[in-house]
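Quick start: read one record
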Amino acid sequence: MVPLLPITRALIVANVGIYLLQWLSHGDNVGWFALWPWDTPLFRYWQVVTYAFLHDPNNIAHIFFNMFALYMFGSEIERVLGARRYLLYYFVCVIGAAVMQLLVTRFLSGAVGPTVGASGGVFGLLLAFGMFFPQRRIMLLLPPIPMRAWVFVTLYGLIELAMGVFGTQQGVAHFAHLGGMLAGFLLLSLWRNQGSNPSSQNGANGW
């Protein structure tokens, strides 16, 4: 694991700081900054970004696992892409996840509740990690078994798709997670097609 790099550190600090503010305010800021369906009066355009810095103040596991994944994978991707592209990549994944969630809630689920969490960006980082380091072994928490990165990312994506389609684990934005992965894949593919392959420039062994 590479040391915690500046942009990844800043993202973690921002998420944790805003979580503490949410906790102190008892979640009163959700109405303005969470992602609401676009056909509700609570929707604002800035929410496609701000939702990714909010987490459920009554569920510490929500922010813990998102920040743990950001800690585990973020600096690796930041090292490969460089600070500027890494920040762009992260927010493209966040916005891609938001767009997917808006589409799903509008045309499929009809849900009216808000969406919060950094998972869209985190899933984009997982996708990038699987593409840059496909043979790297990842030790899962549950179950505690090693797995190659490309296998882990593929299985995780398929599981998210199945959960989204069959409506399991209610309250989790599975299609937003997939939207983050899709946005990340499209951006990395665009950079590759433009002849700019950051993985080859920075020692990654995939893509």
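The CA atoms of residues 69 and 122 lie 7 Å apart.
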